[in-house]
Design goal:
The complex is a heterodimer of chains A (127) and B (489).
Chain A: E1 8-9, E2 14-19, E3 22-27, H1 29-35, E4 38-42, E5 49-50, E6 55-61, E7 65-69, E8 74-79, H2 82-85, H3 89-92, E9 101-105, H4 117-126
Antiparallel strand pairs in A: 1-2, 2-3, 3-9, 4-6, 5-8, 6-7, 8-9
Chain B: H1 35-39, H2 53-65, H3 88-93, H4 96-99, H5 111-128, E1 132-134, H6 140-157, E2 166-170, H7 176-183, E3 187-191, H8 201-207, E4 212-218, H9 230-239, E5 243-248, H10 260-263, E6 267-270, E7 290-292, E8 304-307, E9 313-316, H11 334-369, E10 385-388, H12 399-408, E11 415-416, E12 425-428, H13 436-455, H14 458-461, H15 474-479
Parallel strand pairs in B: 2-3, 2-4, 4-5, 5-6
Antiparallel strand pairs in B: 1-7, 6-7, 8-9, 10-12, 11-12
Classes of the chains: A alpha+beta (127), B alpha/beta (489).
Chain lengths: 127, 489
């Protein structure tokens, strides 16, 4: 399973790319593999303000519907509109073209509490 | 076992020929009426297929032969209780006195029908241990929603309607539980399952406070396990003023043996179309009967099927605190006739045998398959066993591939990927109506498939091969749903 070292992770299988005070969020390769073929991605409106761990959207696959959680507090500045017509990007390129939400963090230091690659690999080993 | 190969059926519309007709329509001996003048705008063509009687008979007979149902084979779909429904149910439902009733008949003319519903209610009170029963909800999820609406009305009547805005559900819950709660305007919080497969009581204690309206518990759980601490769980919720709802999808494991009303639950739903042998599959007609304790009685959906001053069967519509009607009539009345037939045929001696054999059959399958498909929790199960196929991932095989291969071996697959907390989950519910020989044939097929998964996984990846259609593209079916035939394609 591909777990890039330059990303942060959550136990609920989101990845986060930190860029200054911006966080780009998607779901991990493991998560897309467990979900199976993704058929719909529900994303928040830009401008929405989220608390940490608040539900920010959902991913529907042929198996199930799974919630997405905000890894930290912040404001949604952009969502990946390409997923509306091509939800399968989440399967084919979960950590690239399948990104979901760009969040402007309230406090950039919130990212320090997230899992690093080694921490997330330990979560996967337990699964 | 071989599966009969049948030609791919054509839609009936493609067999249509202009002017062909299947019956002789008599010449009208009444005056002609201009339809457009009588009813307004009409369509020139409704594109009905035009077909001869013999072609019509062949069309539907051939379709029926590629159908798979409980009458043709084993159907171990977990959480669905696909038991055999005895034919005598159909005989009583076809009695003209029942079958020819009209839903709009005046109440005074249907005492017999009301008496039948009272008979079912009395049986269900005895079986569940609840004070009241109504058969008004027309599906399981409808029963859940009705119970939550009553719980909401109950809290409102005590001045706690605004304060209690949260409903708790276990992380193993049926998806309908959070959906019903959300539909009622509640926020949903998930309660985790512990390592043994039970509700994590400490986690429940941590979230249980005076903002919680209800905890929705499935018992036996969707893991096929009886919740041993159910009394303690109910007490814990009641201490904080919450209500406990029992999702009764799994009642088949308890019929005649133990009663949810005695466990501390405030209300529950039952699926007559699962546990009590009314038609199931093909969309029903379902019945999500509910049971409740007396403190919720004032809020029941009106009218109530009950008895009047001298014991006569009546419909009681004088219910000022009722949440109102939840369906126009009492569903499809003939399912009450079928349920009463089933309940009366088994009686108090026979009903516990349903649960005992359902539990025995599930444990037999669990024991026979444990070396190839280990149980998610290794302890005696109830009416269904929950197995994991995760060890086959290393061969490139998922639970879905095992199920697709099972179709080629002549069996309906079990439920896959539910409950969500079990990886590569296979949920097998054999029900009480299957013989040991059938269970053995199924287990032999599963063991064969697990060997194939290790040695020749292409057989699984490319299954099914012997059906009218092969592996369907489920993602495409969801994204581009296309169920309507169109002439111009």
């Amino acid at each position: 399973m591909n777990v890039p070292a330059d990303l942060k992770y959550t136990k609920s299988h989101e990845w986060i790319r930190i860029d200054g005070d911006t966080a780009i969020i998607g779901i991990t390769e493991h998560a897309q593999s467990e979900l199976g073929d993704v058929v719909f991605v529900e994303l928040p409106e830009p401008g929405r303000v989220l608390q940490a761990e608040e539900t920010l959207g959902s991913v529907e696959s042929v198996k199930t519907v799974s919630d997405l959680y905000a890894p930290m507090a912040g404001e949604v500045v952009e969502v990946n509109g390409a997923l509306t017509g091509q939800p399968e990007l989440v399967n084919s390129d979960s950590m690239g073209e399948g990104w979901m939400v760009k969040l402007k963090m309230n406090d950039a230091s919130d990212a320090d509490g997230l899992l690093d690659a080694a921490g997330y690999e330990a979560v996967l080993a337990d699964a | 076992m071989t599966t009969r190969t049948v030609p791919t059926p054509k839609p009936i519309f493609e067999k249509s020929r202009p002017g062909r007709i299947g019956c002789n329509i008599p010449v009208a001996d009444t005056p002609k009426v201009d339809l457009a003048a009588a009813v307004g705008e009409t369509r020139d063509s409704v594109a009905w297929p035009e077909i001869g009687e013999l072609d019509l008979v062949r069309h539907f007979t051939n379709l029926s032969q590629i159908n798979y149902g409980i009458d043709t084979g084993f159907y171990p779909l977990g959480s669905c209780t696909m038991k055999y429904n005895p034919r005598i149910n159909e005989q009583t439902a076809a009695l003209p006195g029942f079958a020819r009733l009209h839903p709009m008949q005046p109440e005074e003319s249907i005492p017999g029908a009301i008496e039948v519903m009272l008979g079912v209610q009395d049986f269900l009170k005895e079986i569940t241990g609840f004070d009241e029963i109504t058969m008004q909800p027309v599906a399981g999820a409808h029963g859940e929603l009705t119970c939550l609406m009553m719980i909401k009305a109950y809290h409102e009547s005590r001045g706690e309607g605004d304060q209690r805005n949260i409903v708790l559900v276990p992380d193993s819950a049926h998806g309908t539980n959070p959906a019903s709660a959300a539909r009622c305007g509640y926020k949903v919080k998930s309660v985790p399952t512990d390592a043994e497969g039970n509700t994590d009581i400490e986690a429940l204690r941590a979230v249980m406070d005076e903002t919680v309206a209800a905890f929705m518990v499935t018992n036996p759980s969707t893991l096929g396990l009886f919740e041993p601490h159910i009394k303690e769980i109910c007490d814990l919720v009641h201490e904080k003023g919450g209500q406990v709802f029992c999702d009764g999808a799994n009642m088949n494991a308890m019929v005649g043996v133990t009663r949810p009303g005695d466990h501390g639950f405030d209300c529950m739903h039952l699926n007559l179309h699962k546990t009590f042998s009314t038609p199931h599959g093909g969309g029903g007609p379902g019945c999500g009967a509910i049971g409740l304790q007396s403190h919720l009685e004032a809020f029941m959906p009106a009218p109530l099927v009950t008895r009047g001053a001298v014991g006569e069967p009546v419909l009681d519509d004088d219910r000022p605190q009722s949440i109102g009607r939840v369906s126009s009539f009492f569903g499809q009345f003939l399912m009450a006739v079928r349920a009463l037939t089933y309940l009366a045929a088994y009686g108090s001696d026979g009903l516990p045998e349903i649960a005992r054999h359902a539990v025995l059959n599930a444990n037999y399958i669990k024991a026979r398959l444990k070396d190839v498909l280990p149980p998610a929790h290794d302890r005696p199960c109830m009416h269904e066993c929950i197995l994991t196929a995760k060890e086959y991932k290393k061969y490139g095989v998922r639970a879905l591939d095992i199920s697709k291969r099972l179709i080629d071996l002549g069996f309906h697959p079990p439920t896959n990927y539910f409950p969500l907390i079990v990886p590569e989950c296979m949920m097998i519910e054999p029900t009480e109506t299957e013989s040991k020989e059938t269970l053995d044939e199924f287990c032999d097929a599963m063991i064969q498939i697990c060997t194939e998964a290790r040695e020749d996984h292409e057989l699984l990846i490319n299954a099914p091969q012997k059906q009218v259609v092969g592996r369907l593209n489920e993602a495409e079916a969801v994204k581009n749903l296309d169920v309507k035939w169109q002439a111009d394609r």
